Amino acid sequence: MKTILNKRLSTISAFINSNDKVIDIGCDHGLLGIDLVLHKNVLKMISSDINSGPLQKALENNKKYHVEDKILLKQGNGLETIDDEIDTIVISGMGGITITNILKDIKKYPHIKKIIISPNNDFPLTRKEIAKHGFKLDNEVMVYEKEKYYLVSCYLKGKDNINYYFGKLNFQDEIVKNYYQEIYNTNKKILSNLSLKNKLKRVNLMIENIKIRKRR
Ligand SMILES: C[S@@+](CC[C@H](N)C(=O)[O-])C[C@H]1O[C@@H](n2cnc3c(N)ncnc32)[C@H](O)[C@@H]1O
Questions:
Q1: Tens-digit pLDDT profile for residues 176-209
Q2: I need a surface site. Which of 16, 48, 49, 185 has the fewest CB within 10 A?
Q3: Closest ligand 1 atom, CA of 90?
Q4: Ligand 1: distance of its center to the CA of 53 in Å?
């Protein structure tokens, strides 16, 4: 059967194995969960959302793909919809700050072994905050879709010493190269228009561009 997922959600799905017990927090349409039960045959699937509208959409999609008995739909805020069996969390399509806020009490759920996130922004912040909870960045992929860059990061239990700015992105990948080149060019443009009085902002943009230049 053809995939029902876009590139970003397919990349998330690729980090999930058939023996995972998964919750998709902020599931909206619920398509990720449907793909995971149909194509990965995951051991357990919860699709949850804080709002009833998205869950209604997810229910309709579950019926459309005949998976109502394979996916548990739950309404609730962030981690509160997790049960004792779940070992893998997905949170995607939200801002980096929202995602790190949702994960702030993750230590109360010691059975979680894997976290996959796809933040819309604030990538370095998400890496730094999740590391504080005893998870190490295992792998990352940058996705380019509809003229936007998306990050997909997979964390496992453990500790690591990583560079929070670059994470574990592969610099041989053209999408990654293009992403940092765009940041570099944007910073250069901002710097050329920024008044000399904005010293702190100027220094931060210059430091960011030096980091990028060294890495290329
Ligand atoms: C833009 S959609 C992303 C949908 C899907 N995860 C994706 O990546 O395509 C964000 C969803 O997260 C839900 N949401 C926002 N904050 C939440 C929270 N604290 N707990 C659970 N769901 C939340 C919203 O209701 C919305 O359905």
A1: 999 999 999 999 999 999 998 999 999 999 999 9
A2: 185
A3: 6
A4: 11
